[in-house]
Amino acid sequence: MDVLANSRVMDMAIDIKGDYNDSMDIIERYPREKRYTLAILQDIQRKYDFIPREVMVLMSDYLGMPISDIYSMATFYKALSLKPKGKYIIKLCNGTACHIRGSESIREELETILNISPGETTEDGLFSIEVVNCIGACALAPVMLINEKYYGGLTEEKVKAIIDGIKEGHR
Ligand code: FES
After folding, report:
1. Does 135 contact ligand 1 (Cβ within 6 A)?
2. Given this model, what pLDDT does residue 22 score?
3. Cα–Cα distance measured from residue 105 to residue 124, given in angstroms and rounded to the nearest whole number
4. Does some domain include residue 124?
5. What would the pLDDT profile of 4-54 be if each residue is shown by its tens digit?
6. Which of 47, 77, 123, 133 is most buried, most CB within 10 Å of its CB?
7. How many helices (H) and strands (E) does the chain have?
8. If you measure from the C-alpha of residue 135 to the centroid of ligand 1, how many angstroms do you get, rounded to a whole number?
9. How many domains are contained in the chain?
């Protein structure tokens, strides 16, 4: 583990402030054995949509293993995230049909408007971008899914209007 990651882990040990008490219900479903670390992390990810560092501290204590080991596992697996996702999770399709119809320029537009890259969340916690494979709406290509809603036939202008509309609803 590099020095930066190590110092983040040190921070975790002294900074338990979130309300994650109910995470113990998940953790305690498993025996106190290291081999259950990933299974617990997956359950935690499902519950909170990310892995709060406070929960890693609790896991470390319960499993009797260094936080650095839990941190390493949480950063290794792509399905696990150390950061909370946005209120609006934008899943931009980059499957074949969408790619052919310009999903790359839609991605660039999203990145420009929101000032984040795929896998990141805006500072206000409103948006996250994920690039995904076919989401089964090829006839609408290029298409994105924001939470449960499909937006198809995207153009750069349309994307901007959609994002502006959502932002407007939060003023
Ligand atoms: S390729 Fe994008 S929805 Fe199928």
Report:
1. yes
2. 85
3. 24
4. yes
5. 344 344 444 334 455 777 899 999 999 999 999 999 999 999 998 889 999
6. 47
7. 8, 4
8. 5
9. 2
